[in-house]
Each structure stands twice: as structure tokens, then as C-alpha cells.
């Protein structure tokens, strides 16, 4: 494996699988829960949505790229979000070309804290957005939030991988029902491969927030060939930290894992890797992983890297880095990586 020095003082490892380009600054940010989301619209545009200053931002900002992520528009606020202290969520392009934007609103009543999931849908590639809707959950908690794309069952029925539950939501009827075998996967990606297999980023067999994880419960990913009725442990995915990882199912059958390299003996995130699976998620080609971002220092913030297919030969990864000493200061960045 060779390496080359790129802008921002980044050293990017180039494996046999492809070559990353220098990161492009999408937008300047301040700090906190910036947590960007990413999707490729049906017309080929790339959309990035993020908080400028997290911890309960009052608006979600959207930036657009019409040239495959090489340049980005000035950001503008997504309309219709009112009376909401925002925890950012996700973007999903559905099979009919519409785009779903999710987020959650922080709420407090005395000592009680909870987050209410909300969403809006665009029918014109993110140019305009429909009326804001809510997800009516029973027993809503401060963990009723998601950070990953929804899993589409139909253009109006989606699986929501919320932190405190995994449910199916009907956007037409507002009905919420259990998904698959009823287990909670946690706030993780769940994707469908070209063969119809479901792959979940669940680190444990059934996610809870209380108590210690029992070693026998660790599964490092789950796989289902029957729409989630049963799941097989993968024992294949890497360390699952605070920001987890991302999964991207490509049209050619490849599945991309976007993972975070954590420090050994030092806390924090240090790099972001892309790894491919060519057998429907059973095994992963870690020997040919591509490091798309490695600033040779700790990455400030939680990064939340997200990856989409820009075209058949190119992947794009969106993330944030709050380091104040990097050129331009804290920002959201996008890096393109060519596939072999």
C-alpha cells in the first residue's frame, strides 16, 4: 500500500481498490451536533443537509452539488421546520425519485426529556419540500431518533432504525408497526442488497441502553434473507463507536461499509475507511480498504461519515471535522473515491 500527501495536511492511504481525491469543503460550521446527511437525487444531484451549530439547531441547512461533489452551492434552510430544537437525521432517495428528510425535535417537560421524529418529502430532487409530518410513537423517549437512511418497503412504507426501537412507518396512514422479528437494531444502517438480502449494522443481537453488553450478545452485524423475520450474525463488522458506521448498497451488488478508525490507547476518531463486500454482505475485503480521510491527528467531533454512489466508478463520502486549526476552521467536507 502506498500513500500520498494531499491538502489540509491529510495523508490518504491508497489501496488496490481505488483512489480518493482531496476533500472539498461543503460548508463552514460552528460545532456541536452538526451530523450531516447525504443522498444522490434521481437527477444525479448530490444533497447534503446538516446543522451549522448542533445541540439543538433551529434550522437544517441544505447544500447541493450538480457536478458530482466537486463543488457545492451556498446553503439554504429547509423550509417548514418550526418550533423545533433540531437533532439532525437522514436523507433517503426512494424508488419513485422522491426524497425523505428525517430529523428529531428535542423536548423537555420538567425532568422528562424526549425527541419527536419528524420528516418531510420532496418530489423535485430537493428543490421544494412538502408539509412536515410526525411519527406517532407510543412511549416516546429521548432516544426516539435516527441518523441513518430509512429502509424502503414501498415509497410510503419505511423501516425506521431509531435508537430506541426499529419500526415500520406508513407515511400515508401514520401507522407504526413492529418490523421483522421485533428486535431493536439500534441507531444503525439497514440496507437491502441487489439480491434482496437485508444487512443490518447492529453490533449486538438486540439493542438496549441499560446495563453492560454481554459478550455472547455481540454479533458485529446481522443478515436476513426473509425480510427481517430471522437474522444471522455476521461477526464481520469493525468496532462500533458512538458514531457507528454507514452501509451503502450499490446497483452492481457490491455493499460499501464506511467505518471509523478509532485510536488504540487514545480515545476519538482518527480516520475513515471504505470497505467492499462482493458476496452479499457475508464477507468484507478489509485487505483492500481505502482510507478516505486521515488528517494525522484526532478528528474533532463525531464525523458521522456518509457514503453514496456518485456514478458507477465513483463513491462520495460526507463528514464533518471541527478542528479549529485546519484551513478554514470547522467544516463539512466531501471526498470522492474512484472504484477499481
The CATH class turns out to be: Mainly Beta
Largest sheet: number of strands, sense, barrel closure: 5 strands, antiparallel
Instruction: Please count the beta strands (DSSP E, at least 2 residues each).
Output: 27
Indicate the percent of residues in helices. under 10%
Structural class: mainly beta
Query: What is the mean predicted local confidence, pLDDT?
Result: 91
Rounded to the nearest angstrom, the distance between the terminal CA atoms is 15 Å
Give an overview in words.
The chain is 0% helix and 42% strand. The chain is an all-beta fold. β13 and β14 form a beta hairpin. It has no helices and 27 strands. The N terminus is likely disordered. It has one domain: Neuraminidase (6 Propeller). The strands form 7 sheets. Strands 3, 4, 25, 26 and 27 form a 5-stranded antiparallel beta sheet that branches. A 4-stranded antiparallel beta sheet has the order 5-6-7-8, with no helix packed on it. A 4-stranded antiparallel beta sheet has the order 9-10-11-12, with no helix packed on it.
In short:
This protein has 340 residues and is an all-beta fold.
